[in-house]
Amino acid sequence: MHPLFLIKSPNHAFNVMLRGLATTRKKYDFCAELYYKLKSLGLKANNFTYPFLFIACGNVWGFLHGKIDHRLVFKAGLEGDEYVNRSLITMYKRCGEMGFARMVFDEMGERELASWNSMISGYSKTSFAKKAFGLFMEMREKGFEPDEMTLVSVLGACGDLGLGRWVEGFVLEKKVEVNSYVGSALIDMYGKCRDLISARRVFDSMPNKDVVTWNAIITGSLDRFYTL
Predict the structure, then answer these.
(1) What is the pLDDT of residue 2?
(2) What is the DSSP string of 39-86?
(3) For residue 151, what is the enclosing H or E element?
(4) Which H or E run includes 51?
(5) What span, in angstroms and rounded, lies between the C-alpha atoms of 13 and 11?
(6) 217 φ, ψ (degrees, to nearest 5)
(7) Which residues of the chain fall below pLDDT 50?
(8) How far is CA 93 from CA 13, 21, 51, 224, in A?
(9) Could you count the other beta carbons within 10 Å of the beta carbon of residue 28?
(10) Which of 81, 157, 210, 228 could make a disulfide contact with 129, Cβ separation 3.0–4.6 Å?
(11) Distance between CA 170 and CA 152 in Å, rounded?
């Protein structure tokens, strides 16, 4: 008998090791080796196993490996698992493959706010500003209330769309706390839109400012200075 089977929960032990390996430099090779070792011992991967593989695939080189692992999800019958699907979306967006991320998102039966946030963030970071804002509006129509992460992602896209004032109005209407996280995103957005007066207004209205807030207003001011 393999020593691993002497452990009370061998699957849990494997998942813990996968989680640790997913953060190493040669992460996919190590994770894949451990995964196939798991299979050879007759252990079954579960909905916690695959997300660690997808974390390891979160780069361009790992994209092809990620697609292979995606197919394994179907074989395991886990394509309806929210946690697995959200990890797939994160993996594809880190690889810059938003088309595949959207495919996974659209095929999900039920979506939690975290899945909407992941897609909106992905669109925002890959310069698909209109799609980010469009998905935000769709999310609202579905009855989801945005959280800080949603608003920060949308504001990142609004630097290209000039829709930041609408988002700030939404923040004020819903009485969302303009903390360092949201406030810095507003300042950054106005800085990108070359509206330093509004950026300074948001900055001055914030009772608590941290280094991120100061960096946002300084960066916006410098960007404006160098474009004059």
Answers:
(1) 44
(2) HHTTPPP-TTHHHHHHHHT-SSTTHHHHHHHHHHHHHTT-TT-HHHHH
(3) helix 148-161
(4) helix 49-56
(5) 5
(6) -70, -35
(7) 1-6, 60, 226, 228
(8) 28, 21, 14, 31
(9) 22
(10) 157
(11) 13
Model pLDDT, residue 49:
82
Predicted confidence at residue 68, as pLDDT, reads 64
Tell which CATH classification among 1.25.40.10, 3.30.390.50, 3.10.105.10, 3.30.70.100 matches the domain 111-228: 1.25.40.10
Q: What is the crossing angle of helices 49-56 and 27-40, to 10°?
A: 150
The model's pTM = 0.80
Kindly report each contact of residues 162-165 with a partner whose C-beta sits within 8 Å and lies 24 or more positions away, as own/partner: 162/193, 163/133, 164/189, 164/190, 164/193, 165/198
- For residue range 157-170, what is the model confidence (pLDDT) as tens digits? 887 666 889 999 99
**CA dist 217 to 109, 142, 154, 224, Å?**
42, 35, 19, 11
User: Domain extents for the chain?
Assistant: 1-109, 111-228
Q: Where are the beta strands (DSSP E) in the chain?
A: none
Q: Quote the CA–CA distance of 23 and 181 in Å, as a whole number.
A: 26
Tokens 């974390």 belong to 55
Task: Match 């050879």 to its residue by tokens.
Answer: 40
Tokens of 130: 């209109």
Q: Could you give the C-alpha distances from 39 to 42, 69, 83, in angstroms and in order?
A: 5, 13, 21
**Spatial separation of the C-alpha atoms in residues 89 and 119, rounded to whole Å:** 7
